[in-house]
């Protein structure tokens, strides 16, 4: 899952070497903290959050096979 988020994020940003993902697992959920360069935060979020919503949709669809909920948090 981590590599999927990283692949999507690196394709969107101008500074792909600044893309970092931290995974925090719990009993019922897994949270991925996506950190990008401050200049790229707008590209990852998109207008009205459409790109961020699309990333979350793809990740949740890929994680539907597991019993845990998956969350993606984005920071710059």
Short account of what is shown:
With 76 residues, the protein is of the alpha+beta class. 38% of the residues lie in helices and 26% in strands. It comes from Bacillus songklensis.
Structure description:
- It is built from three helices and three strands; from the N terminus they run αββααβ.
- The protein has 76 residues and is of the alpha+beta class.
- It has a single domain, classed as GMP Synthetase, Chain A, domain 3, CATH 3.30.300.
- The protein has a three-stranded mixed beta sheet with strand order 1-2-3.
- Strand 1 (20-25) and strand 2 (29-35) form a beta hairpin.
- It is globular, with a radius of gyration of 12 Å.
- The model has no long low-confidence stretch (mean pLDDT 92).
